[in-house]
Write the structure tokens for this entry.
Amino acid sequence: MNGAITAVSLLGLVLFWTVLAWLRADPTVLPTPLAVWEIVRAEAASGALWEHMRATIGRVGAAFGLAMSLGLIIGYAMGRSATLDRWFGAWLLVFLNIPALVVIVLCYLWIGLNEVAAITAVALNKTAMVAVTIREGTRALDSQLEDMARSYRMGRAAHFRHIVLPQLWPFIASSTRNGLAIIWKIVLVVEFLGRSNGVGFQIHLYFQLFEIGYVMAYAFSFVLFVLAIEWSLIALFERRATHWRLSTQRT
């Protein structure tokens, strides 16, 4: 049922886009969905679309993995230690409020126009967001479960696996969803400013040529990829992450 509603909703969006394009009546300003789809097919057939998609996906994956790993470690440590939180809580606030564009430019200036700078810039922009979410999740851990673990003298590994991790899964799932949505957008800006391939680079190229159809074709191609990841992997991960809470509520 939910899938049918989503499909109808997306169809309504396409129809709305079609009506706007028909009212504007200028394909150089707002091409129709069919015209954009033809561009996508042509770029895919030539291999250009897949080449640039692979470059962007690689950067998204590397930055996402780095940001999630650092954010999990920092957030858990600060959630467990009030001292660490007092000393470094302001750091998170600073990094949360530095504009992504500033971080990207500084990384390019300090490290150079290379892959290391690109991935570092994206990861830095997301790490603080993950850390804040995990910190709040760690603070919300059930104290009664903590007492039970101590009374049974559970080891650190067993305690983390059976007590801490199940409670943190919803927060990790939330960070994963939000992180993917934000990181791929920042990656496009990174590619727009200083890379020679990727979806962002192509958008920059066709922006200079004022080819709106190609800009929309590359943008929506990656949107479709992100939606596919969201509806398959992340949705499944989130259902499993919250399953234990639902089971507890039923009992």
